[in-house]
Amino acid sequence: MNIKCYYSVLLLIQLFLINSINALASDSINVNNNSFFSFDEQIVNGTTGTPLGGFGCGAIKFDANTGTFSAMTVPPADAYDFKNVADAQFQLFTNRNGQIETRNILKAILTHGRPNDDAIWPLHKVDFGSVNGVRIELTGISPLDNKDYTNMHLPYALYEISLTNMESSEVISAFALKWNSESAPFFSLPAKGIYSDEWSILVKTSHSKAGVSVGDDKENRFLRSGVCSSSQEQAHTGKVAVKMNLLPHETQKIYFVVAWYDRTDPEIGYYKNLYKTPRAIAEHGLKVFSKLKYNAEKLVTGMRASNLPGWLKNQTLNTLVNVVTNSMYKKDGRVAFAEGQWTCFGTMDQMWLARQIMYMLIPYYAWQELAYWARTQMKNGQIHHDFNVMSVGKEREKRSVLVSWDDTEHIDYRNIQKWVDLNCGFIISVFEIYRATADRKQFDLLWPYVKKAAQRILDQVEQYGSTKYPFTFDGSENSYDAGGNPDPYNSNLSAVAYKMMIQLAGEKGEADLVKLYENAYKMVVNSFHNRYIRDGQFVAGKHCESIFAGQWLAFHLKLGEIWKAEDTDFILSKLENYYYPYYRGLGYPEGTYDEWSPYILAHYGGLLLNTGRLDQWHAMQKDSYLRQYLDRDRVFDHPLNILPLVNEPKWVSTNIKSKKQYISIPAMWRNYYDIVGFHRDFRSKELWIKPIIPKTMNHEMKNAMFISPEGYGYIDCKESGEYMQDKEIVIRTESPMPVSTLYLSDNFEENISVTINGKKYPFTRIGSGYAKEIAVRWNGKITEKGIRIVVKGTPEKKVIPIPVKPVTGVISNSSINQMSPYETMEAENADKLAGTSIVQSNKGNRYVTSCNNFDYIQFSNIDFGKKGATQLKIRVSGLSENSEIEVVLDDTSGTVVGNCKVPATGGEEVWVELECPVGKITDIHNVVLRFYGNSSDNLMNIDWIRFK
Prior knowledge:
The chain has 948 residues and is α+β, with helices and mostly antiparallel strands.
């Protein structure tokens, strides 16, 4: 890829970009403002590199701007994260007609201060420019192979170097990779590379007469002659160099494999069953190099070939970095994903949202993960929240220890007996992956656990259900552990779980279960309507985006609508008048943890997409992109939070970390699939083709790629007619895809006609409201030649009105707090109490309690002045040994400036005053106190705090 050609376009639109930011900051996304909607990027430059590595193996990154490397050899980033690799760099030697030019540290060339590179998972492309008439380009590759997974879960990264002689005379060129093994010395493999107990770098080249030299190069001979020197001593720094003659205008390739091997934890990776040394892994990497490069480039090229907005393609594709940064694949086959930000692993409530793209792209790992969830299911049927061993304290590294396969009663980060969504999420995930893969063997293994999870929901209805509104909940709990009302979400999501159970039990021939869940489904649908719509109990507020998550999911999975269209319109009007996405995007200019990006984009954004409110969805998701990608530090390090608006873009990242990269960020793929319009039931061979074309695409979609376990495919769609109701669709698949029934969008009143490859087909109109469809019994096979579908008719004249403009200002917390940090600040007066509560003692003293794992309180906009504070004093009663308070600045994913260890004091109101050092705090900050401990119950009570 020629990266440089994009820059003139990017620079021309930069002025418009700044205007769009100002529009956002002034409480309005002006939908007529071209700056907001027209800004686009075809590449992702200026990061510290794409994380490259195998599933559950860690990764390395190359910072093209500085020419340096960072590595995470033990997964996941949440626990271990990336650290700089000292003295690791690419080097170059050239000699043209006696004129020698070298580079000790190769870096990307810059255009207007920005490096010419492109970090798009699973690739990293770098343009090093030309030296002495030799053009140097790099392609970094992360292993991706969903046909032979043994190629994918190995700890290695691949780098292809392209050397091109741009002139008409021969040139001697040499390229080297220098590495530091730190604790273990390197040994040389003549003409192949170097290896130690922890690292190996091997090389091959396309040039038949190239020379390979290896060694420690202590004399720095490479920069004088292009050949490494080797001393007799073993060294921790090694170098591998390839030297060749390039004929005029000739291009040759060099292939490096960098492999690593963790020796600290014998159970850390499945790869330890396959290989004993990094050298063996690197040798394997050279054998499969071309295959892995092909796989990676096919994915990226296919995604980017469409005319979908570049920002949407890049944002969506780069969420797959979680395959590397968040994955864990233990030696005995346990698969889990790290939550990110909170160092909690598994996290069913978040992961079910993101699991969709995992079973589409790499279903083997998704099945393995679900088997782990099943085998650790509690005896009462409850699905756990996490897999952590919670007795290791707050040290992130120790939290990478996971419970054993069949540890059913292990302690979660908090008591999760009231969490309904965990059981729903498990059922949803098994249903989805079974439908996508048609793997009956795997499904049959999980079916007993699915039934137990479903029964657990019914048990929770008995325990926490409403008597007035049967099958809805009162006092239940779920993912929203930091505030908000969890009951509507649990009720809404359970309706989808019941609907799935009806279908699955019917397939299994279990008629009694079908009747049981038909009744449950009917009851919750009716009660939810009566409670939250008819009787007006829906109250807009924190996390209310979740109110109709079940309806969204039913639309998304093509299960038909659960509640009527007028109910959907009612809920959407309430949400619109709270969030105002058309005018505010995600809102919260300073960013917030009060709403969560992946949740609001999926639950609410997906509902907007599926109900024709494209402008509102576009404003929300484009805003999320700008907040992330205008600050390059966030591209591979996106927390759960809504990020703050970026008033001044940071185009070049200095952040190598990924510990905040959140587990549910890949949920954005669900919106991508709704836009492309591909949904599939591989079991029944049913296929939904229902593209949604954003208005910026001028009513035509071209080459939109979809991924499925059956292979890749592509969709074209042209829409026309008074209401853009008519569609001409072409779908092509790389592998034959048998289809029984085709489902198309029904936006018509009458006079409908459907033709496939020029032949008119009968059809049936099914569904209702926003889920109306045209069903065509086709019984054919789609191949790479594709089929052409044309559907026309008299339009349904439904117009979504432009939302009413808000009369109130955007939610903001920018005013300075009147509390002084140097005087006593009562805990109950904190601006935010996330998961905690306030109680009053018999003596009248009020304090904060229910301080469970990962709960927090926040004092907003506290002015520390210029002198600053270096110590925190806190009055606390400790209820559990080994509890801690983490002092964080600005938001929950901000800078940690201190820790306070809280001893068990012997009772609820047995108070002690602790003094804890903190890093110097000056100026205005939010102060967040986060709670950690070994218990799933209340860890402590907080009375007051004071800084000095």
